[in-house]
Design a protein that fits this description.
The protein has 158 residues and is an all-alpha fold. It contains 7 helices and no strands. Helix 1 runs antiparallel to helix 4, helix 4 packs antiparallel against helix 5 and helix 5 runs parallel beside helix 7. It is globular and about 55 Å long. The two termini are 30 Å apart.
């Protein structure tokens, strides 16, 4: 099921190029497979595809990297990950990737520095702990990379 969904998401921008809205409007309404397909312009569907990928798949990629590098934050008394901190970091990362993604698409690269500064300022006191600083730095850089690469691809294709 998941592979089918990803196939549809990836092919949607290109289907709008191959089958423009004129083709869809001339199809009989009884043909369920193509007549009911949304008529989304190529550029909008491409931006939406990148947006969806940076949210869900971006989180998966970053979590895998943080886990494999063993930089997940732990509480002082335990050796297991701090679940609350981990969840907050996930949502901060998602918001950061959304902002960075759209700032790159709209060619507002300088504004990314404001996001990084605000994020660092909010976590300034916690950066004294080496383990948290490593988690924060690796997660932030990966988050920027995961948001920037799809945004650059989208900009090139538009």
């Amino acid at each position: 099921y998941r592979a089918w969904w990803y196939g549809l998401l990836i092919s949607l921008p290109f289907l709008t190029l191959v089958f423009p809205s004129v083709v869809f409007s001339n199809l009989p309404k009884t043909n369920f497979s193509l007549a009911l397909m949304p008529q989304i312009p190529f550029n909008i569907s491409l931006v939406l595809l990148g947006f969806i990928l940076i949210i869900k798949e971006g989180t998966i990629v970053i979590r895998l990297a943080l886990t494999s590098l063993k930089t997940v934050p732990v509480t002082e008394n335990q050796t297991s990950p701090d679940a609350e901190e981990y969840e907050r970091g996930k949502w901060i990362g998602i918001l950061e990737r959304i902002f960075v993604y759209f700032l790159v698409i709209f060619n507002q690269i300088g504004a990314i520095a404001i996001i990084i500064a605000l994020k660092s300022l909010a976590r300034f006191n916690e950066l004294n702990k080496k383990s948290f600083a490593e988690y924060f730095l690796i997660g932030s850089l990966l988050s920027l990379l995961v948001a920037t690469l799809p945004a650059m691809i989208v900009r090139l294709l538009l």
